[in-house]
Design goal:
Elements: E1 3-9, E2 14-19, H1 25-31, E3 49-54, E4 57-58, H2 70-74, E5 77-79, E6 84-85, E7 89-93, E8 106-116, E9 121-128, E10 141-145, E11 152-156, E12 165-171, H3 177-184, E13 191-198, E14 210-215, H4 219-232, E15 238-244, H5 253-262, E16 266-272, H6 291-294, E17 300-305, H7 307-320, E18 326-331
Parallel strand pairs: 1-7, 14-15, 14-17, 15-16, 17-18
Antiparallel strand pairs: 1-2, 3-5, 3-7, 4-6, 8-9, 8-13, 9-12, 10-11, 10-13
Helix pairs in contact: 4-5
Length: about 350
C-alpha cells in the first residue's frame, strides 16, 4: 500500500504525495514533480533535511554524521533521501513552495447549502468536484474566490479531510465582499474555486492532554480537528472552551455535543463575553481555563481566534507561569483585508 505524505512548506502551502513501501520520500516527491531540496541524494550533504511532525519511518544507517547528527535525529529532523515511511506522515519543509517549483493547487466545488447559522455566522457547504484529489490537514484553510470578482478570502475548513462535502464557518461582515455575495447572490448549484490547502495550524499526534480554545468562527478548524480525533479515537483528555461575544453568535453546539458523544474523553464549555448574557458561563475563555486543564504544562494547546484573544491567552499563560508542551495558534482578522484564516 502507498502512504500519504503531507509536505508543509515554509510559506504554509501543503502538497500531498504518495510514497510506496521501500521508496524514499525524496524519490516519491520527484515522482510527483515536487523538487525537494537536494544536492547528493546519498546521505552525505544534508541539503534535504526536513522535520517530521507525525508518522513512522526508518532512516537506515547509510548516511554520515555530518549530514545528520544524533541530536538532530532525536529532534525529528530527517534526510528525505534516506527516509522510508511505514505510515502516513507530515513533514515540515524549510523552504517556500516556490523554491520547489510548485504552483498553488486549484480545486472546485458546487454550493450544496448556505445556512444563516446566526446573525454573525454563515455556514457554507460545497460538494467537491473531485474529493479524492483534494486533501488537507485538519485545521488548514483555503483561499476561496468570490465568484465574478477575482477576489478571494481565506477560510478554514470546519469539515474533516476526505469528506465529499467541504464546509466553512464564515463571519457575516456588514458590506463584506464574501458575506454580501453569499447573502444576496449565492445559491445552490453555483461553482466556486478554492486554492490551497495552506497553513501550519493543524492537528499533530495526540499523545498528551489537549486544550482547544476557539473564538467566534475560529471554531471552524477546531471542529475539523475534533472530527478526526473522534474518528481515530484517543485515550487522552481533550477539553474545548468556545467563546463568543454575544448570545446570538453561538453556533454548532449540537455538533460539538454529538462529537462529545462519539469521543468519551472530550469535555467542553461555551462562554459569552457580553455581561448581559443569559448564558450560564460569562466572560472570556481565560476565565474558564483551569489548572486541571493545563496539567502543569503537560498539554498541547490549540487556539484559534481574533488577535486580542490570542494575545490574552498568551498573557494568561505567562501570568500563570505555565509553558505548554506545544502551543499552536492561529490569529484571524475578519475584515475586507482578510489574509489569514477566518
Amino acid at each position: 500500500m502507498a502512504y500519504k505524505i503531507a509536505l508543509n512548506f515554509e510559506d504554509g502551502i501543503t502538497r500531498f504525495i504518495e510514497c510506496n513501501p521501500g521508496e524514499t520520500v525524496l524519490d516519491a516527491a520527484y515522482r510527483h514533480k515536487v523538487n525537494l531540496p537536494m544536492d547528493c541524494s546519498d546521505g552525505v550533504c544534508g541539503t534535504c533535511k526536513c522535520r517530521v511532525e507525525t508518522g513512522e519511518f526508518d532512516l537506515g544507517d547509510d548516511y554520515i554524521d555530518e549530514a545528520l547528527s544524533d541530536e538532530e535525529a532525536a529532534e525529528g529532523i530527517v534526510l528525505t533521501c534516506q527516509m522510508e515511511v511505514s505510515s502516513d506522515c507530515v513533514l515540515q519543509v524549510p523552504v517556500p513552495s516556490s523554491a520547489c517549483k510548485l504552483k498553488p493547487a486549484e480545486h472546485t466545488g458546487t454550493i450544496s447549502a448556505i445556512e444563516m447559522a446566526s446573525g454573525s455566522t454563515i455556514v457554507l457547504k460545497l460538494a467537491l468536484d473531485d474529493p479524492e484529489a483534494f486533501a488537507f490537514l485538519p485545521g488548514q484553510y483555503v483561499n476561496l474566490t468570490v465568484p465574478g470578482t477575482g477576489q478571494h478570502r481565506a477560510y478554514s475548513f470546519s469539515s474533516k479531510p476526505g469528506a465529499a462535502e467541504a464546509s466553512f464557518l464564515i463571519r457575516n461582515i456588514p458590506d463584506g465582499m464574501m458575506s454580501t455575495w453569499l447573502s444576496e447572490q449565492a445559491k445552490a448549484g453555483i461553482s466556486m474555486t478554492m486554492v490551497g490547502p495552506s497553513g501550519s495550524f493543524f492537528l499533530r499526534e495526540v499523545d498528551r492532554p489537549v486544550v482547544m480554545l476557539a473564538g467566534g468562527t475560529g471554531l471552524a478548524p477546531i471542529l475539523s480537528m475534533l472530527e478526526v480525533m473522534a474518528d481515530s479515537g484517543t485515550d487522552q483528555p481533550v477539553h474545548l472552551i468556545y467563546g463568543v461575544t454575544n448570545d446570538g453568535d453561538m453556533v454548532e453546539c449540537d455538533r460539538i455535543e454529538a462529537l462529545a458523544g462519539r469521543m468519551p474523553t472530550l469535555t467542553w464549555a461555551a462562554c459569552v463575553a457580553d455581561t448581559d448574557t443569559a448564558y450560564p458561563l460569562k466572560g472570556y475563555v481565560t476565565d474558564h481555563l483551569l489548572d486541571e486543564h493545563l496539567n502543569a504544562g503537560d498539554c498541547d494547546i490549540y487556539l484559534c481566534g481574533p488577535p486580542p484573544m490570542v494575545e490574552a491567552v498568551r498573557q494568561f499563560l505567562r501570568d500563570k507561569g505555565v509553558t505548554p508542551a506545544h502551543f499552536h495558534y492561529e490569529k484571524f482578522a475578519p475584515s475586507e483585508l482578510e489574509s489569514e484564516p477566518a
